[in-house]
Design goal:
Peptidase U32, Peptidase_U32
Length: 641
């Protein structure tokens, strides 16, 4: 079965959580169905869901007899243990012959190449594909279809599809996230449950209050977005040239999914048959009456603002498959001496021969901080591509001034985490002119690697690449990266095993308040639109910084020069007591996230880490007397096994 409009294929792609649901959904008016197998997918939280090996084989037979397609999700990040399991699973899938796999981890691409398998690959939304260079890079790696970033509007999708010739897949209905794909680490740091490994505890659905400038605002659920609803905009979807229209809902029940697939499929057929006389609203009332949350078109027609935030049933769990709220506000765990000793013992088991002396790197946010870093002779100074307000981006003059001051230090220029075509034009102009006094670039996405690998500037990979296993690291090394930042979601066992097996130089963020969420959604709009309900100062950060407040603490939210928001730890990450074991494990670089500190605070932190790395000073206190600036210290995701 296939649908065409003016010679372009239009595919309706529906989900199925179980084999019983699949057997009903495949008979509906969809063209293809996607589901997960028994392992390695993003929906592993609920028992009884996903398909067995035997059910996968039978499902493929049923679908192909109906002339429909099946895509199987192998779309979470792999630990080292998962890599070994994936070899057998991929070998099975190669024999079963699905129409494609939907994947997030680069390790899948490496395994398919290494094992010489014949499995078509679609990139998952968790790859967060958002620019033309990323599409080209994935095409070069053998990917045949891209699921676009949730934040991509239809006009951008049309442009990227036309220029690349790549098949694009776009979410049209269902549960959405407020955070850029694969850029949410809140669940892993607080619960040890990775959102990129199918175990998200949904802190985006917690009840928060917004605080700023000494006032409290009644935001309630400021991160909880509405469900996607594009039923009335099928003409615009088809006109954009998108190939596959994707419905979210692998945890939804059978009757609900069949109703959705039939409503959308019938509407597509009506439009293809009579585009001029097409009625956009035939099933709108039924879909609205059966909604789980309220509806939004999200980013399809531009940045939606507060109109994208849901109120219906938030906090009740009525829209979850289990009928329960996934989690409630929970404070980050404190750094305890007992847990530190357990981590030290485990890391000490994985010693590696030292090849080079470990370096210290510091990411800053302004020139005053940068001068302190260079004055202290830190090995690497990182200038960010995303600068927190009220500071402004580093100018070419700033970079030249720092180049004159750097001495033996190295300076690396960071790129924005999300790069539009405009950003590429701007950095092309900056990097294509006179040689800058920098020693390399910090690349944040696959497209930037492809674009700037031939500039002559060495490239190091940032944490947003989500490197979780040695195969993924191996692929990025082949693409030209000389160093990689370890995934922020690494738990103890995963980290120890990965670091011991990886040959690529690795960097670990060891101190500071790295971003737990990175989003296009502007939380600051709450303070511009809503009237305050109380007065209350922030506990740990200046009042001009917005914070999300629960009864467990306050998370600061910084907005960058692109208007994107970065939600940070309430507590500071601190691996100071673990540096010796990490050095012996072969970690090449330790990074301090210094953006939110004053110059004096940053100076003290740097000196403490320099002393610990040089092992020049021993104190009874496991933190060497270093006191937290914010709500305390935490070990983040590393505290979990």
């Amino acid at each position: 079965m296939a649908r065409y409009f003016n010679g372009r294929e239009v595919e309706l792609l529906a989900p199925a959580g179980t084999f019983e649901i699949f057997k009903e959904v495949i008979q509906s008016r969809c063209d293809a169905v996607y589901f997960g197998g028994p392992v390695l997918n993003m929906r592993m939280m609920r028992k009884g869901y996903n398909l067995t090996h035997e059910e996968i084989v039978e499902a493929l037979d049923i679908a192909h007899r109906l002339d429909k397609k099946v895509y199987i999700t192998v779309n979470n990040l792999f630990s080292e243990e998962d890599v070994e399991e994936a070899r057998e699973y991929l070998r099975f899938l190669d024999g079963a012959r699905p129409d494609a796999l939907i994947v997030q981890d680069m390790a899948v691409l490496e395994l398919i190449r290494e094992m010489e398998l014949n499995l078509p690959i679609h990139s998952s939304v968790m790859m967060n594909v958002h620019n033309l260079e990323m599409i080209y890079a994935l095409r070069d790696l053998g990917v045949t279809r891209v699921v676009t970033s949730r934040e991509m509007d239809l006009q951008t999708a049309k442009l990227l599809g036309q220029r690349s010739g790549m098949e694009l897949e776009y979410f049209i209905h269902g549960d959405m996230c407020s955070v850029h794909g694969a850029n949410c680490y809140f669940s892993s740091h607080v619960f040890g449950m990775s959102s990129n490994r199918g175990k998200c505890m949904k802190p985006c659905r917690w009840d928060y209050r917004v605080k700023k400038d000494g006032y409290v605002y009644p935001a309630e659920y400021p991160l909880a977005v509405k469900d996607m609803f594009m039923y009335e905009h099928l003409p615009e979807l088809i006109e954009s040239g998108i190939t596959s229209f994707k419905i979210e809902g692998r945890m939804r029940d059978k009757d609900f999914m069949v109703m959705l697939a039939n409503s959308y499929g019938e509407a597509i057929d009506r439009y293809i048959d009579d585009p001029i006389g097409f009625d956009r609203t035939v099933d709108t009332k039924e879909l609205y009456n059966n909604r789980k949350r309220d509806f939004s078109t999200a980013y399809a027609f531009g940045k939606p603002g507060l109109a994208n935030i849901n109120r219906r049933y938030e906090g009740t769990g009525k829209f979850y498959s289990t009928g329960k709220v996934f989690s409630t506000p929970t404070a980050e765990r404190e750094l305890s001496e007992k847990r530190v000793e357990e981590l030290r013992e485990r890391l000490a088991q994985e010693k590696k021969p030292k090849t080079t002396k470990a370096k210290l790197a510091v990411r800053v946010n302004n020139m005053e901080q940068a001068r302190v870093v260079l004055e202290l002779g830190v090995d690497s100074l990182y200038l960010p591509g995303d600068v927190f307000e009220p500071d402004r981006p580093f100018t070419k003059r700033d970079i030249k001034e720092l180049g004159e001051l750097k001495g033996d230090s190295k300076i690396y220029l960071g790129l924005p985490r999300m790069m539009t075509e405009l950003h590429f034009d701007q950095y092309d102009q900056l990097l294509g002119g006179e040689r800058l006094p920098i020693d390399g670039l910090i690349v944040t996405n696959l497209g930037a690697i492809r674009r700037y690998s031939s500039t002559g500037y060495p490239l190091i990979g940032d944490g947003s690449l989500n490197v979780y296993n040695h195969l993924s690291a191996q692929l990025y090394a082949k693409l030209g990266l000389t160093q990689l930042s370890v995934s922020p979601e690494m738990t103890l066992e995963h980290f120890a095993t990965f670091a011991s097996r990886c040959d690529t130089p690795l960097e670990v963020v060891v101190h500071g308040t790295p971003a737990l969420m990175y989003m296009e959604h502007d939380l600051y709009e709450n303070t511009e639109v809503m009237e305050p309900i109380a007065e209350e100062d922030n506990q740990y950060v200046h009042n001009n910084v917005l914070v999300l407040k629960t009864d467990k603490g306050e998370n600061p939210v910084y907005r960058d020069q692109h208007g994107r928001c970065h939600l940070l730890f309430a507590k500071e990450l601190c691996y100071l007591p673990l540096l010796g074991e990490m050095i012996d494990l072969g970690i090449s670089s330790f990074r301090i996230e210094g953006a939110t500190y004053s110059a004096q605070q940053l100076r003290e932190i740097i000196i403490s880490y320099q002393q610990a790395m040089n092992r020049t000073e021993v104190k009874d206190d496991m933190l060497g007397g270093l006191e937290p600036i914010y709500a305390g210290y935490t070990l983040g995701s590393l505290q979990f096994n």
